[in-house]
Specification:
single chain, 465 residues, alpha/beta, Rossmann fold, Diaminopimelate Epimerase, Chain A, domain 1, 3 domains, 6-stranded mixed beta sheet, 40% helix, globular, exonuclease
Length: 465
């Protein structure tokens, strides 16, 4: 019995295997009167939260979804209600790393080595209940309350949302453990592979100009993108008329522009292959035209507008605000790259930007511009790391980011941070508490925060590469 009164839930939730986690979590969820879902701010974890909350909706279990930008934020939110008198039938489920205090009160479903989407899918299957949608509430927190209606028939897991989450985690649809997810989507007639490029919108100009999954000379500019696509001879305003050959023509031109860019690296040819020949979503019940495009919107909203992203993952009608957030996210990322300063070190490529989403900048640069296996994008008050390296010899990105934070602390720089799949995020000069702004520190006190400049961050990161 845990401190929250859920049977068979251990106080230390670092379970021994994926199957153990799913079984233990399912048991705790079934006995919970209210479930708080706290998720990492990325597309994989957002999709995982959508899969889990769909199962909760199907059983008429009330829930709340909160997106935590850093480990400190998730830890605080996971522990802040643990000791309240009315929390005995509440359960907190976390996707993403949390610190030790939260592990005593919450179940973490995912792990650093495995996508959150797969962990959520395992738990939903264990529960024997699958997809549904409902919910409401603005901003970063979304809450579902019970109704008087009895639970409906058990719905099936949404394989399209699951595929989108896996793509956001860097997993090719159907690869490894995800094979059953792709087969489920195919058997239900929800996806089919076709030529072309993975974008969320039917409009190719809109989709390509704002995509953070590729980098071409025209990226971020609608008019330049339209002009670049004009040699195809396609009627770009009538994408519904495109056949397989038309999509193939479009994909070929995009690939040539991407790899032929003056500052493209050798990795660009490999990276663009992950965006070509997408899985098209063939059902009208979904808001986006390809799985890869769906993944891109989840990723953008998770970081830029988490409330909208949570609503989208829960199946609410959030298409237009989600696309607006995705467009702004992509435009800012490409504009930042256009004016960025760069520096190359042994094993590390540094991109300095004035403004823009640092995670997107780091990932685009890694895929298409970096000659080194790791990219550091440094902006105003935040930075992101992205790496291509995998396997035992590459070390742990989590351990590296934690070490960087310790080094910054030694220099008097306070930093909040997060880690994901082959990526890390730093917010420096920020308060550790999600409820305490950095400006709350007394500049005359011994505990005052030192605001780091770009050179301080670069020096701390270079010490680990």
């Amino acid at each position: 019995m845990s401190t929250n009164g859920h049977p068979d839930q251990e106080s230390n939730t670092e379970f021994g295997s994926d199957a153990d986690t799913a079984v233990t979590a399912a048991t705790a969820i079934e006995s919970a009167g209210f479930v708080r879902v706290i998720t990492r701010a990325d597309g994989d974890a957002l999709a995982a939260s959508g899969l889990l909350t769909a199962a909760l909706s199907a059983t008429n279990t009330p829930f709340q979804v909160t997106v935590g930008r850093t480990i400190a934020e998730r830890t605080e939110r996971a522990t802040c209600r643990a000791d309240t008198a009315d929390a005995s039938d509440e359960l907190t489920v976390v996707f993403g790393t949390v610190d030790e205090p939260a592990r005593e009160h919450a179940i973490r479903l995912d792990s650093d080595e495995r996508p959150a989407t797969l962990a959520a899918a395992d738990t939903v299957r264990e529960l024997g209940s699958r997809d549904s949608d409902d919910s409401s509430s603005p901003a970063e927190t979304r809450t579902q309350t019970p109704t008087d209606d009895p639970p409906g028939p058990e719905p099936t897991l949404d394989p399209v949302l699951a595929l989108a989450g896996l793509v956001a985690a860097g997993v090719d649809p159907g690869a490894g453990e995800s094979e059953w997810v792709l087969e489920s989507a195919r058997e239900r007639g929800l996806v089919e592979r076709r030529p072309g490029v993975a974008v969320p919108t039917a409009d190719p100009v809109d989709g390509l100009a704002h995509s953070t999954r590729l980098r071409a000379p025209w990226s971020g500019d609608l008019e330049a993108t339209r002009e670049a696509l004009s040699p195809t001879g396609l009627d770009l305003d009538q994408p519904e008329t495109f056949d397989g050959d038309d999509h193939r023509t479009l994909g070929s031109l995009v690939a040539l522009d991407v790899v032929g860019a003056d500052d493209a690296t050798e990795t660009a040819a490999t990276s663009i292959q992950r965006v070509l020949r997408p899985y098209a979503i063939t059902s009208d019940e979904y808001a986006f035209v390809t799985v890869g495009g769906y993944a891109a919107v989840l990723e953008a909203t998770a970081r830029a507008e988490p409330g909208t992203g949570a609503a989208l993952a829960m199946g609410l009608d959030a298409r237009e605000p989600a696309l607006a957030a995705w467009r702004a996210y992509g435009s800012r990322a490409h504009a930042a790259l256009e004016s960025a300063s760069t520096g190359r070190y042994d094993g590390l490529f540094v991109v300095g930007i004035d403004d823009g989403p640092v995670e997107a900048v780091a990932q685009i640069a890694l895929a298409y511009r970096s000659p080194e296996p790791t990219v550091l994008a440094v902006g105003s008050g935040e930075a992101a790391l992205a790496t291509r390296e995998t396997g035992p010899s590459s070390g742990s990105i989590a351990a590296t980011v934690e070490a960087i934070v310790r080094d910054l602390a030694d220099d008097g720089v306070q930093a909040a941070y997060d880690v994901g799949h082959r990526c890390g995020y730093l917010r420096f000069g920020a308060a550790e508490s999600a409820s305490e702004p950095a400006s709350a520190a007394d500049p005359d006190s011994q505990d005052a925060v030192t605001v780091a400049d770009e050179s301080t961050i670069i020096a701390a990161v270079r010490g680990h590469y």
